[in-house]
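So, can you check these tokens?
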Amino acid sequence: MTIRILIADDNQDTKDNLIELFSNEDNLEIIGTATNGKDAVELSRELIPDIVIMDINMPVMNGLEATEKLSIELPQISVIIISVQDEPEYLRKSMLAGAKDYLTKPFNPSELLNTIQKIYEREKRKKTKDTLDMAPLESNTGKIFTFFSTKGGCGKTTLLVNIAIALKKVYPEKNIAIIDSKLQFGDVAMFLNIKNPATIYDMVNDETVDFNFIDKYFKLDDSGIYVLACPEKPQFADEIRPDFLGDVLSASIERFDFVFIDTSPVFREIELQIIDATNGFFFLILTPEVTSVKNAKETLEIIESLGYPKEKIKIILNRSDTKVALTRENIENTLDLKIQASFPSNGEITVPALNKGKPFVISNPESKISKAIFNSLESLLDISENEKRKSEGFMDKIKNILR
């Protein structure tokens, strides 16, 4: 299948380089070029390309304006925005405008070609209604659950770690893993008091990513959870390419039944790769504050613009009992989504658990927040009746744990 491409950039050198690059690929066809956003929109209406490579800064109409017009008028066209700007704010604006990806100049040619192929195939699956359909839990393919928040300090990692361990307690027969994709300042290993773990950075120089490769680098914690830690030093983060992480995720779901991913509070290529791979649920963690809810609303707009199904997005409200906070009804009306689970403040339990590196569902299973975690598992993960029967009494297990 030939992928039809329109190039929109006012820099002739960039256009020439792209034309040369694409002309060497048998499955890519350049059907037109434009020097400004207005022409790009008009040509797209006429030619209906599969993909538009859109520069962000152009005369007459900039790339963001043109992308927004195309996303409304011709949503079947995928836009990849290119820019010299590397700030997360530009990526965020691009996603809100409806772009499917964002690459910074100068980009690696193979990276651009891989991005085009990935987006084209994803959109093709969507058109056949075969994308991101969640299989039953008994499927041989594991499920990826992504945890995201718009800022640090909202308790995202705490909840992720404790939910994963609670699930392991209910399903001891399942293989469960956590991947720390906060590549600069991740702290999952610290939450579990794992000393000197292998990291995703250590994996980079291995030749292949496969089943055995996963077993070599994922550390089995005392809780029964496998953990892939973030790089030891922040400067190593740049060595982790999005396509490499994609390979790790693909291999992970062959090895594990459930993979929980802790993410950074930004939208970059790494985070977009994770969203694209998430075949379970995308959990958005927020607290009952105006700024948290505002940022959550913008996040939802970005996620939906990427084509991720709204029904696979789940809202988790942390510190729900905070005084002088927004009400649950206020938050749900603003986000146009129901809150799937809410957890109380319990600092006298959560802080010591973090300091000791022993999650509270293990150290204090009788605490208010631990009980809330266990009692939320069924609705959070959509555990089927069949799966509960296979687990020899899902709710009975939880009751026994909480005694």
Notes: Confidence is low (pLDDT under 50) at residues 129-139. The domain at 3-127 is CATH 3.40.50.2300 (Rossmann fold).
